[in-house]
Specification:
The complex is a heterotrimer of chains A (about 230), B (about 450) and C (about 300). With about 230 residues, chain A is mainly β. Chain A has two helices and eleven strands, in the order E-H-E-E-E-E-E-E-E-E-E-H-E. Chain A is elongated. In chain C, the strands form three sheets. Chain C has a seven-stranded antiparallel sheet with strand order 7-2-8-1-14-13-15. Chain C has a five-stranded antiparallel sheet with strand order 9-10-11-12-16. In chain C, strands 4-5-3-6 form a four-stranded antiparallel sheet, covered by helices on one side. In chain C, helix 5 runs parallel beside helix 6 and helix 6 packs across helix 7. Classes of the chains: A mainly beta (about 230), B alpha/beta (about 450), C alpha+beta (about 300).
Chain lengths: ~230, ~450, ~300
């Protein structure tokens, strides 16, 4: 177990240690994060990182293999470009949560603000609360599960990502439509909620959304959507 | 001949509605969407051609070729990186994606650049194994799309270039038709095959130089502060942009003038947005000097660099290096007259071809088609690139020696004069034979 | 581009610490705003019939003796002049318009950075740490304050170009972002009689609010109209005599965090500024939703 007190040591020290091969199967405990940025970024190994407090921007950025837990809130771009592994935020996350994530799992037990899952490329995101505007913007692949409500313009210009929403959607973005839920979707949704530790959520009210695929090839009649 | 046969001598060309504008209006009426093409601005603008070197005289003595050294090396990224980049020549290959270019073209660029001791740059699509394998020094672009972005490649890179914009389309995004999304490209970019690719105009997880500063910091943390971070901007408000990039923590600034090429964007964007490379270079250098960062944060300029004279003039204005994109493609064979027949079949002619977005390039450069791209032999292509870079370097040295310089970085604005009032005003270099710079008093 | 902070003290016993808390918050905003620092502090409201002005002296050596003598001649003992670095807070027993007119006429070398009953506005080039030291900010008390650290985007780095910009009596604005239609708007506002000292986009936003409120709109209505009349990216914090308000533009890309405990309410561009406040870790923390006005008031 390695302990880091960010009141006396630097984020640099923490990240450097995270990038050593000795971090494989290691346990890191990080205290007094004080909203600092770039905490636990670029992890490479199967490390468990527990952060006690609120973090700034880009916590868990480009994460690979590590399992990161933030016992607090996260700033903008939490787990951006995550490749694998997991990031769990016990509190709320700010804008651009899991932006451009390629894989792995990001769980936010509270709410996120706008642009959750923007440009996602394969990451799975599960939010226990609600999310803000323009979430799933240009989402290419992966799943975004939201137990609460969603702000304006969900899934604008999305490609093949899937959105499972338990609450109310304020409005849908360009070319995002509601889609039928079949057995395979129910299985997928249950699996994701289980991975997020939210298996007790009632999934009967969940609805599925995704790309209408009308913007895949230009048609002048859709010009208003651009 | 009758009156009717004589009509040709009475035809008066319209300045506002020349044939290509007429054709474009009629195309718009037929298709209902903007025209998309590749390459850079074709309109007439002030360029480095409007500057001349003074050379040697009674008061300034030239250096002998061969015996008397004229060095060309440059170090990029001295500000913060543990491993700055050392290049043998101040000419690099600009960012062009695999996807926009064929694998053979990328390999050619890598081979040629490495042979001459300089760098290549990835583009909007990520790093290929071939490019990393063939480029001794590789700059990895960090773009709004983040296609293929991953930390392993970030760590394999010799530098990271955060792209805020490019000269052809500063602020561009929107929807691009007919992208060459082949199987391999689709897989790398995580997109369904064959669809129109939509482009984001802003980065997904930061907006503004204050937040860019935090992003740059994150990239440094991920790569353990080893490699230089470049910030690339399309030339618009270049003075402010340079200042802000320095404040955001960049090691190197890359400024791409409006003549800079692109794989594909709206023609209206290419021709009507941005400022030429000539004033952009001056503005960037002025900003660096005002911050006392000239030569401490290095400046690379691109956008219409064609020969050793352009390189010399950019350096004389204060740049540390230049980058070539369009010129590199031409060196590889783009728009070569030997494909004239096929260009005609495409409705164009050698020297005019710019529909890179269609992926039908006869020279095999801007295409993913296996038959077309196999026409480009990467070894031969590599030699062509090396030859072209070598020629530019020799030209650069010739001009620098004539100005009495033992290192090309000692070229300075006072070595030059301007031929036109616009160039004099834009470069703040006096009109030849006078002391006059428009806007400054005598 | 910049860092902004706002702090409203709910617990009167903590009002003596306002300056200390503000100093810590500002220092956290140094990297996103290295060029200049500015604060608006609300404290010691003057009595009825009096006015408080914050004055900025000209560059270089300036003696306030001349001003002192002139004030003494006109107002006798009914004034108070307190120097703070190269700036001064003047309390004087006349109304705001008269006081400002008098300064413009008798002392055109001085700039008026703030006017009202409680507001004091100080700004200077340089980092927050330097500012805190030069102005002894840690010793200030007060009910609420706004702060700003500047990274100049398109206009020059001078004291005049720094925020907060004062918009009217006890009103001020700090801004993080970049407006895109401010040049046109500045011309229109000039025609309406609003004057500008700089080419700064934030000053235009401040002038816009001043204009709307002069025309009778409440602060709330003015901010609602700002959403359609101002184009660009912004997180605004607006200070009033009784508190402050926060507004984020409809696209909502510039950051903002808000937090509240029983003792205080605060906003900032980054959480780490709020993290310096006592009890921050357990505060209620949330982000402003685009186009919604948030406000705290002691009234």
């Amino acid at each position: 177990m390695k302990t880091f007190n960010l009141e006396n040591s630097t984020v640099r020290d923490l990240n450097q240690a995270l990038h050593q091969s000795s971090a494989e199967k290691g346990e890191f405990l990080v205290g007094n994060p004080g909203g600092k940025h770039s905490i636990a970024v670029g992890a490479m190994y199967n490390t468990t990182v527990m952060i006690d407090g609120h973090v700034g921007y880009y916590c868990g950025g480009m994460n690979q293999n590590a399992a990161i837990t933030v016992n607090g809130n996260a700033g903008s771009g939490c787990a951006e470009n995550i490749m694998s592994g997991s990031v769990l935020i016990k509190g709320n996350a700010s804008q651009y949560c899991a932006a451009t994530g390629h894989g792995g799992l990001v769980v936010v037990e509270g709410d996120t603000s706008s642009r959750c899952g923007i440009s996602m490329k394969g990451v799975d995101i599960v939010v226990g609360g609600s999310i803000g505007n323009l979430s799933g913007f240009m989402a290419q692949s992966g799943c975004l599960v939201v137990c609460g409500d969603v702000g304006e313009a969900l899934g604008d210009s999305a490609y093949e990502a899937r959105f499972y929403i338990g609450g109310n959607v304020a409005s849908l973005g360009a070319d995002c439509i509601e889609k039928k839920i079949e057995d395979e979707h129910i299985t997928q949704l249950q699996n994701l909620l289980r991975q997020a530790g939210m298996e007790s959520i009632d999934i009967s009210k969940f609805r599925r959304y995704g790309s209408g695929r009308k913007l895949y090839n230009f048609n002048i009649d859709n010009a208003g959507d651009y | 001949m009758s009156e009717k046969d004589n009509f040709k001598s009475r035809l008066r060309p319209s300045h506002s509605f020349p044939p290509h504008v007429v054709a474009e209006i009629q195309r718009a009426a037929a298709e209902g969407i903007y025209d998309i093409r590749g390459a850079g601005a074709k309109r007439t603008i002030p360029t480095f051609d409007d500057l001349l070197f003074l050379g040697a005289s009674m008061s300034r003595y030239p250096l002998e070729g061969y015996r008397e050294r004229c060095d060309t090396n440059v170090v990029l990224g001295t500000r913060f990186a543990q491993k700055p980049i050392e290049l043998k020549i101040p000419i690099t290959i600009a960012g062009m994606s695999f996807g926009a270019l064929s694998a053979q073209a990328k390999e050619s660029l890598g081979r040629g650049a490495s042979a001459m001791g300089t760098s290549t740059t990835t583009g909007d699509g990520g790093m290929t194994v071939e490019e990393r394998g063939h480029s001794k020094t590789l700059v990895y672009q960090y773009l709004p799309s983040r296609y293929g972005m991953n930390p392993d490649d970030l760590r394999k890179a010799d530098a990271i270039e955060v792209v805020v914009g490019q000269g052809a389309k500063p602020g561009g995004g929107g929807m691009l038709l007919g992208q060459k999304i082949s199987d391999r490209v689709a897989q790398m970019r995580n997109l369904p095959k064959g669809i129109d690719q939509r482009s984001a105009c802003r980065h997904p997880d930061w907006t503004g130089p204050d937040d860019l500063e935090i992003k740059i910091s994150e990239l440094r943390e991920i790569t353990d502060w080893q490699v230089p971070i470049y910030v690339k901007v399309g030339a618009t408000r270049t003075f402010f942009d340079t200042t802000l990039a320095v404040k955001a923590g960049a090691d190197v600034i890359v400024v791409d003038g409006m003549q800079g090429g692109t794989a594909a964007t709206q023609d209206i964007f290419i021709e009507h947005v941005g400022i030429p490379t000539l004033p952009a270079t001056r503005l960037a250098v002025e900003a660096l000097k005002e911050l006392n960062m000239h030569r401490k944060v290095q400046l690379i300029v691109s956008g219409g660099i064609r020969n050793g004279a352009d390189v010399a003039k950019a350096l004389a204005m204060g740049a540390d290096a230049v980058s070539i994109g369009t010129a590199a493609m031409i060196a590889l064979g783009d728009n070569s007259p030997k494909f004239e027949k096929e260009y005609n079949e495409l409705g164009t002619s050698a020297g005019y071809y710019d529909d890179y977005q269609d992926g039908l390039d006869p020279s095999g450069i801007s295409t993913q088609d296996p038959v077309l791209s196999s026409r480009l032999d990467p070894e031969l292509g590599g030699r062509k690139i090396a030859n072209y870079l070598n020629c530019m370097t020799l030209e650069l040295q010739t001009l620098a020696r004539a100005c009495g310089k033992s290192h090309v970085h000692n070229l300075e604005p006072e070595d030059m004069v301007a031929l036109t009032i616009e160039a004099a005003a834009m470069a703040k270099i006096p009109l030849a034979g006078t002391d006059w710079v428009p806007g400054q008093s005598f | 581009m910049c860092g902004i902070v706002g702090l409203f003290i709910k617990n009167p016993e903590l009002q003596k610490n306002l300056g200390k808390y503000l100093s810590n918050m500002l220092i956290q905003m140094t990297e996103r705003g290295p060029d200049s620092t500015g604060v608006a502090i609300y404290r010691d409201p003057v009595e009825l019939g009096w006015t408080k002005l914050t004055l900025l002296g000209p560059e270089g050596d300036y003696s306030w003796e001349g001003l002192n003598r002139n004030l003494s001649a006109i107002f006798g003992d009914d004034y108070e002049l307190n120097l703070q670095c190269d700036q001064a807070v003047l309390k004087v027993s006349t109304d705001s318009v008269s006081a400002q007119t008098w300064i413009h006429e008798k002392h055109p070398e001085l700039r008026i950075n703030g006017a009202g009953e409680a507001i004091e506005i100080f700004k200077a080039k340089g980092t927050p740490a330097g500012f805190v030291e030069n102005f002894n900010l840690g010793s200030f008390h007060g009910s609420h304050a706004l702060g700003h650290t500047r990274m100049a985007t398109e206009s020059a780095v001078t004291t005049e170009h720094s925020h907060p910009f004062s918009t009217g009596a006890d009103l001020c604005l700090v801004h993080n972002g970049s407006l895109s239609n401010h040049n046109q708007l500045r011309e229109e506002l000039r025609r309406e009689g609003i004057t500008f000292q700089t080419d700064n986009d934030s000053e235009v936003a401040a002038g816009y609010l001043a204009w709307r409120m002069r025309e009778g709109d409440s602060l709330d209505t003015s901010l609602k109209n700002a959403l359609s009349d101002l184009d660009g990216f912004y997180t605004f914090a607006v200070g009033t005599k009784d508190g402050f308000a926060v507004l984020v533009d409809p696209i909502g890309c510039k950051p903002g965090v808000m937090a509240e405990t029983d003792d205080w309410a605060a906003m900032s561009s980054e959480f780490r500024a709020i993290a310096t406040l006592p009890g921050a870790n357990d505060a209620k923390i949330w982000e402003p939703v685009p186009s919604r006005i948030y406000s705290w008031s002691g009234a």
